[in-house]
Each structure stands twice: as structure tokens, then as C-alpha cells.
Amino acid sequence: MVGKNGTYTKVNIDMFLKSAIEDRAMHSIFVTFYIYQLKKRCGKPGNSAELFERVSESIKVKRYTEALDDLNAAIEADPNLSEAYLFRASVLRQLCRYEQSERSYKKVLELKPGHSTAEKELSQLLQAKSALETAQSLYDLGNFTKSLEYIDKVVLVFSPACTKAKLLKVSLLIGDKDYEGAIAESGFILKEDENNLDALLLRGRAYYYLADHDVATRHFQKGLRLDPEHGELKKAYFGLKNLLKKSKSAEDNAGKGKLRVAVEEFKTALAVDPDHLAHNVHLHLGLCKVLVRLGRGKDALNSCSDALKIDEELTEALVQRGEAKLLTEDWEGAVEDIKSAAQKSPQDRNIREALMRAEKALKMSKRKDYYKILGISKTASAAEIKRAYKKLALQWHPDKNVGNREEAEAKFREIAAAYEILSDEDKRVRFDQGEDLEDTGGMGSGGGGFNPFGGGGQQYTFTFDGGFPGGGGGGFGGGFPGGYEFHF
């Protein structure tokens, strides 16, 4: 039972279950006994005895309304027929019509005080009623697993024909994300009553959350044909239509290259139902792919991670997250993601090519970035390269950095090496393609790398073609027309 502040007192479910099993085992015996007693009391065949036989048959095929009509007729014919009251009370209990059932049991005890069967079944009725109330309260609190225990182990044991409990069970299964179970349980309800609107709604929702939208739509439409003004069915049906419309628009605009529009539409579609994971995983992936195409690596990384939280085996999301990591210069992370995708789909040529690009980018990231050393872009012209080099060479010339000559020599050497590569068109192309020219001895003559200071204490002469315009200070004189030589 639910108490104050949302807490509940534990009910002994095992005790209920044991009692329920005994009740089921005895039920058929009681039915036979009731009919025997009625035949004895009513005497002639063709009146009450035959009526009660019809009741028994109706219950077997779950025609409870017919059974109750016949029982009511029997009671009307003989208001003191305690067996009829007991039979009616049992049927009403199974249907979880607890108030009416309780009145019938009390009538039996009024006619036959101390009637053991009536006392036992009345106790079971009260347990089932309490368990159903507790299950509903637990459902409202979001404790789906515990609520389901009360429904399965108590309510549906003592009240196996209780539609209210069966519908609550379907809702609990949906809340617990057991959509296949919800489809099966709601199917049982619809088999008995194909026009049950609540069952149609819940079954449609289960299919919806499995992203089986066509089947979900058919359930919602059938319910609305039966009741066009049913609020929950209308909300579910038009909500699904809205989601599919926004999702399609986002995908269409992405396909047309309207990437910024597509980004906003993917976000709008994701906001329609954040709990619809089976559908949203594809929206997150679609958004990630568009953001990668826009070069928005950080945002793309978040979107693909959202997709992988829903489905960690989604290979395409791994690849796209790898592409996003390349944009954010997380070279090792990119290789890790795309390699993981390649292991899942070893025959996919596109993934293998993406992995090769990522591995190449990782290797290139470990090389010296000569563009960065000279402070220029990768599209810099030959004139821009030369200007940047001259500026930095003057700035870091050892003769101008007497106080930190060792650092200046290292920096100047690096600047000179960058210039040698980027000023030579062939070497620059090879560098841009990812070739490691340091490893292949591609800088300077003799394969030993470029060293503007020579070795063994020898003098080194370095000439700038065209001279340095202007200048002064530091022992360089007042300008360098026609070519200037540094002597070390």
C-alpha cells in the first residue's frame, strides 16, 4: 500500500500467490459443487439448474456479461439462493468489479454465516483490490518493475479477467521499454475485444517506440474510426505525423545541399519526442553528417556521440564521429573510431579508405608543420612564403640574439628548413601529400637534412636573392641591396 510521502508498505506477494494457486485449483471443484446443489434445490431440469449450466459454459468461453445476466435472473427468481450470490461474486471478482463483488460475498455470509468459501474469496478480493491500488500508485511514481509484480503475482491471479489490470500491465511494459512484451499483452486484450480503444492506443505506442511507424499508424487510425474525438489517440496519431514530416524535411534538405536549413530541421525533429530513441538515433546521425559537411567538428562530435549512446554498434556513427574528430584535430581518436568501424564492417571499402585518411592525418600530425613554423596558410603564394621567411630569418638570426644564441640557432635552422621545403614546388607538393621529407632525407643535399650552420666549425654563407629592403642595427648596416650574405 502507498503511504505518505510516496512510500509504500510491502505486501506479502508470495503469500498472495500461494493463496491464489490454491484458489485456482479449487475453483472448478466449487463450480461443479454449485451446479450440483442448484440441481438438488431446483429439482426439475429446464429451470435454474439449466441456467447455471449455461453460466458455467459462458465463463469457460469468457462471456462474462451473459453469465452475469443469467445469475441475476436466478437471484431474481430466488432471492435466497446463496450459491447464485457466491457464483456472481466470483465472476465479479475475476472482472475486478470489486465493490459489486464484495456486496455479493456479504450477501452470501448474511444468508449463510461462516461460509468458508465466501470468507476466503472475500479475503482474496480485498487483497487483489489493495494490490491493484498499490500497483497504480507505484506506476504513477515510475516504479514500473515493482508495480508489475503486484499485477502479475496478485491482481491477475485473483482477477484474471480484469481488463483494467491488463491495460495497466501494458502501460508498465511500455514504461519499462519492453515494447515486444507490450505488443503481445495488448494483443491478448484485442483478441477478446478488437475494439478496445485503450488497447489500440497502447499497442500503437509500442509499435511507435520500435519505429514501426506504419503499424502504429494503422492502430491509431482504427481507434479514431471508432471514436474520432478520442483525445489520446488524436494526440498520438498527429504527433507521429508531425515527427515524420519534420524528419523527412530535414533529410530532404540535407540531400539538396541546404545544410544549414537541415541542421535546424534535424534539431526541431529531435525535440518532438526525446524519448523516441529508435527513431532519434537516425536523426542524431543525420545531424552529425550534415555538421561534418559544414566543418563544425565539435558539434558533429556531440551529435554522433548521442547516436552511439543509443546504439553503440551503429557503424556509420563511428565513422562520422571519426570524421568529426579529424576536424577537431583529435587524430588518434579519429583512427580509433574508424578502425573500430572497420572491424565491424571489414568488407566496406569506404570505411577502409576513411581509415587510411585518418592514419595518414595522424602521421602528418606528428611531422613538423612548416606552414605553422612560417606563420602562413597552406594556400600561401611563393611571394608570401618568401616574405614570411625573410621576416623570421631576420628576427631569429643568431647575430641579433646574442643573449639566447642557442635558442636562436635552433629556431633559425627550423625556419630555414621550412623555407627549403615550401619554396621548392616539388617538395611542397610531396609535403602536402603527407610524405615525411625528413625521414626520406629530402631536405638539403646529401640526404643529411638541412643545416644552415654547417658542421665542424666551418663558416656558412647564406644568401637572400634580391636583398632585404631597409634594415639597420645589429651589425647589418643600413640596407641590403643586391643580395646579402650571412657569415657564421
UniProtKB/TrEMBL annotation:
Entry-linked PROSITE patterns: DNAJ_1, DNAJ_2, TPR
Subcellular location: Endoplasmic reticulum lumen
Keywords from the named record: Endoplasmic reticulum, Repeat, Signal, TPR repeat
J domain sequence ranges: 369-435
TPR repeats by residue range: 82-115, 197-230
Keyword Heme attached: no
InterPro entries: DnaJ_domain, DnaJ_domain_CS, J_dom_sf, TPR-like_helical_dom_sf, TPR_rpt
Main location: endoplasmic reticulum
UniProt cross-references to Pfam families, sorted A to Z: DnaJ, TPR_16, TPR_8
GO CC term (a single one): endoplasmic reticulum lumen
Endpoints of the signal sequence: none
PANTHER family reported in the protein's UniProt record: DNAJ HOMOLOG SUBFAMILY C MEMBER 7 (PTHR45188:SF2), DNAJ PROTEIN P58IPK HOMOLOG (PTHR45188)
Protein name: J domain-containing protein
